[in-house]
Structure formats: structure tokens, C-alpha cells
Amino acid sequence: MSFLIMEKGERFILKTFNGATTPSKECEEKENYWKLIQEEGTVVNFADDLGFPYKNRVLLQFDCDVKARGLECHNEKPNSLWILKTDLKEIR
Fold first, then answer.
1. Which domain of life is it from (predicted)?
2. CA–CA separation, 63 vs 76, rounded Å?
3. 30-36-37 Cα angle (round to 5)
4. In the predicted model, is pLDDT for residue 44 greater than 50?
5. Helix spans in the chain (H)
6. What is the DSSP letter of 20?
7. Where are the beta strands (DSSP E) in 1-92?
8. CA 65 to CA 51: how far, in whole Å?
9. pLDDT at 91
10. Cα–Cα distance between 55 and 49 in angstroms, integer?
11. What is the distance between the alpha carbons of residues 24 and 42, in angstroms, rounded to a whole number?
């Protein structure tokens, strides 16, 4: 498995969420972030840089309006979520 070297400002597409393409049956609609699969966004921060325990995540700011899709989004940057690096595909 090859690992991407990511930088702030780079653009990616969400290909999976938490390693899966579909949510579990118990997933609440407001937490169904799988709706964002195939959406594009920009890396704005790294968990490593902020001392977060989940170092394999990046803060991805989506181009779309996350809240307009009925999803919770509580980060300081609008339309941004902490996403696993392995859930992202580089836009070329």
C-alpha cells in the first residue's frame, strides 16, 4: 500500500468514509457522512500538527455545504470534517 504525502491546500475526493462505502444500518441520518462520497475538498489541517490522538486524519474542507445535506458539522472551519487519510483520493 502506498501512502500519499499530503500538504495543506491539496485537493482530494472522498472515496470512502471510515473505510466503507455505505453506512451501518444503525447510522443516524445526521451522521450519514457517506452522503459526501465523491465530493471534493481541500486539506486545511493535520491531526498530527494539532496533537490530536488520531494522527491518521486530516481536516478536509468540502466544497459543498455539509449542513445543507442535513449532516452535523461542528468544526471551526465551515464544511470541514476530520477524515481518514486513507478515505481520500488525490485529484490529478
1. Bacteria
2. 15
3. 135
4. yes
5. 47-50
6. B
7. 11-14, 40-46, 57-62, 80-84, 88-90
8. 27
9. 92
10. 9
11. 27
Amino acid at 26: E
C-alpha cell at 22: 455505505
**35 and 71 in contact (C-beta within 8 Å)?**
yes
CB–CB of 25/54 below 8 Å? no
Residues 27, 31, 32, 35, Cα dihedral to 10°: 180
Q: Is there a contact between 10 and 90 (Cβ–Cβ < 8 Å)? A: yes
Angle at 65 between CA 59 and CA 66, to 5 degrees: 60
CB atoms within 10 A of CB 80: 21
The whole-model pTM stands at 0.92
pLDDT beyond 70 at 3 = no
Backbone CA torsion sign across 9, 7, 75, 72: positive
